[in-house]
Amino acid sequence: MSPLQALAIFGAGIAAGAINTVVGSGTLITFPVLLSFGYAPVVANVSNTIGLVPGNASGAIGYRSELAGQRERTARLAIASVSGGVIGAVLLLSLPASAFKTIVPAFIIVALVLILLQPRLSAALSAHRPAGRVHPGALAMAGVFASGIYGGYFGAAQGIMVLAILGLGLDEDLQRINAIKIVLVGLVNLVSGIIFAFAAHVAWLPALLIAAGSVLGGVLGARVGRRLPATALRLVIVAVGIVAIGRLV
Asked: For 26, which DSSP code?
């Protein structure tokens, strides 16, 4: 790996950590970068998952004031999310690599559509949120479990899915819901990363570079990420997502 490639991966980690904290879908930054440097899709995915774990942690610390008073429901949701993440990680390692290469472009397309529709999703959350519901119901738990499976297998835009699920299922401020989202996505990355570290081929240098960058990005995302122009951010993510699809097909 050249110094320029290392710098690019580190920079992608910063961007991904910030984006994951603010909204989700940081994988659509780091995953295409690893593909562009010649890493196989599954190797790029598992290395990226491990690398983003510290960024989720720093983002959660940055949102600690929004997490205050949410321990019980976060713990309940975490059980569903982690269970799904284990299943998704096992599926990634059990299915042939060709299946991943075939399935992931469709996942990326869905993720990009969700990113583009995010303003409408946010409006729907405020319009349809059930009044007074402070604990997740069965549908919300099932949705979080399903998003955990997706996150363990690939994970791009998992955060947006979780925001939509919890926003429709809880009567709560969106920033406090976003704080729960950071924890849930981080736990899926963590449990998947542990499985991958023992059972998959990991490109450790890129993973460490992403990890270092994502920590810084998580801090920046928690502090200033909400000030970024949302439209510009979505367009950047869509652009790199299209690049990733081009690398896979």
From this structure: T
